[in-house]
Amino acid sequence: MSRTERGFKYEGLGNDFVVLDRRVSGLDISPSASRSLCDRRRGVGADGVLVLLPSRSAGARMVVHNADGSIAEMCGNGLRCVAKHLLDREPGKDALEVETGAGVLPARARRAGGEVVEVEIELGPARLDAPHLPRGTGGGPFVAAAIPGVDWPGTAVSMGNPHLVLLGAPPEVVREHGPRLEHLPGFPDRTNVEAVSRAAEGLRVSVWERGSGLTDACGTGAVASVAAALVAGWVPPDVFVPVELPGGRLTVRVSADLQRTTLRGPARFVFAAELPEALLD
Which residue is catalytic, options 13, 51, 75, 123? Predict the structure, then answer.
């Protein structure tokens, strides 16, 4: 008899994931399994696979597998989905910590009818200086720097994973230039790319995700965008700024010194299914 495994589909503003709870076995998946599961014609279809493994320092360890089989350090929408998955199974609990490639991060839930509908997560500092970011002129942070082939300045921000934020750029820029800018020199691990413009109450952001392409939403991308906008004087510190993405709205708070960032947004269960062995190898 073929081996099967129960998988869970979640989405946060259309950024969708397959969650595999492997805290008992402790076994991660291969790059080929991630590609198979994420395939929208021959698999489940997702922007990524989130594997839950045991952790000595938190309720679980989340490993983020992109649709192309690569591994990301962090995923804000994914972390909200994981928090929902775990907390929906503990009705009396509304907070937990999850170990990620960007450290152990706390999450708090808001429930409606007993079900988790919104999750707030603390993502730690937004860094302008990190090993996987390029350097600016004179060796300083890469802030409002000229980017070859586009008309908008770029700011490099690390949320545990790398981001290139193009302030003032219209949404179509990420579709046209995202594949090239993902591999921009100076980003040794490639980069996510955000096109950011002002909206009535905050920001409008479109994202090219490293390893996944265009997505409806990106949590860390929303936070990186607010951090870059704060540095540029577009938004105030220490208040929740609405961020409009193709999939809907997130709200982000960044401290004046960039050391504290908070992301708030929905997470939704889509379905559960028995996944065949052919998709897991």
Answer: 75
